[in-house]
Amino acid sequence: MRKHTRAALLCVAAALTLTACAAGKGGGANSDAAAAPGKDDKLTLTVWSNYSDREYEEVTKALKTFNKKFPNIEIKHEGSQDDDKITAGIRSGNTPDVALSFTTDNIGSFCSTGAFQPLKPYLDRDKVDLNQISPAVRDYTEYKGNRCAMPMLTDVYAMYYNTGMFSDAGISAPPKTLDELFEDAKKLTKKSANGDIEVAGYLPTMGFYANRPTILAPNFGAEWATADGKSGLSTSPGFTEMMTFQKKLVDFYGFDQLERFRAGLGQEYSADHAFHQGKIAIMMDGEYRTAFLKAQAPQIKFNTAPFPTWKPADYGTAFTTGTIMGIPKGAKNPGAAWELIKHLSFDTDTIVDLSNAIKNVPSTKAAMDSPKLEVDEQFKTFIDLAKSDKLKGNPVTPIGDAHIKAVTDFAAEYTSGKVPDLAAGLKKVDQSIDDQIAKSGK
């Protein structure tokens, strides 16, 4: 699974306090960088991640490349460890040396509570050049100047479209504007004699697959916060435009018809995914879908392009997120843990090999430019977006993903017709988010 769905939907700020973190040992917020291990030191580094199956095996291979530098350090990789388990381990004092999280939305909680140790002492000591990593990726690995994590590959989101369906509908190029997307969606949609949807040109159900407000927000120029740091959904024209556009599409299909259609679609990470089955023609998704399609649906002819934008000047904008790596409070071998994180963050060959294996976007400029990186026509879209200055992530808050859940729930209610007043509804969401942040004390 990928980052926006595979992680547990929890509010770490509520479950994990600084007092609870104190159950661990060593590596407090004011500690200096722990010494790096000697080349011949023998120890075991425990790594927790939420990878499984084939991806688990590939990540384990990447971890093992650390032994070229430290041959006597054993890597113990435990997969299927989500943020709930990481949180419970920190609270009980049973922590790994390195934790890999799929939930960038929780970075505010990890950093502000001390759950992940600050990395600045290590970065300063080793004179690490963070400019090797794009600004958007740097943003989602720190909170208020406290860098407590590093990235391990990234996800970038763009448009997928069925080229066969486009040809049959007489559409010669992918849409770039919202008006073009709306018109193409209508042309590509097929209905049965009784009005049931057989093929959706573009599925506007909010919260389904990757059609999520958080992922779509950059393409609408939606701003999450006001200048004074308050939630700013109701004052952002982009959020209003996003909700209005999605509802216009829902109204075109009919909410009840959409629900019947959606009920018969396959799971997001199964071979029965609707795009795999030719039931939707256009969708938003991450770069990893290129590998899923080629493995599970080779009969589908597709291409990728930047997702359409509200303002033409914003074309080429994209949402990004990714796996993050941190040293949990209480880690037994923080110095060695940092060396492993640094290796996975900046060793170009390791990053490129892992990117080629699991088809995620590399997290450094050197890796993206490597001649060893396997880039076909479909994957190139995501590399180009990752290199641009229009890459954007979610805002980092101390309440985990609670603000994201609030806006996603509201989007589903509004587009379904349950909320008649968009402006008033967005103001209520703003108030809810502000209240939760205030209660967090951060």
TrEMBL record:
Any single biological process term in GO: maltodextrin transmembrane transport
Molecular-function annotations in GO: maltose binding
Entry GO CC: ATP-binding cassette (ABC) transporter complex, substrate-binding subunit-containing
Signal sequence segment: 1-22
Keywords: Signal, Transport
PROSITE patterns in the record: PROKAR_LIPOPROTEIN
InterPro entries named among the record's database cross-references: SBP
Pfam families the record matches: SBP_bac_8 (PF13416)
Record keyword RNA-binding present: no
Domain of life assignment: Bacteria
Family: Belongs to the bacterial solute-binding protein 1 family.
The protein, known as: Sugar ABC transporter substrate-binding protein
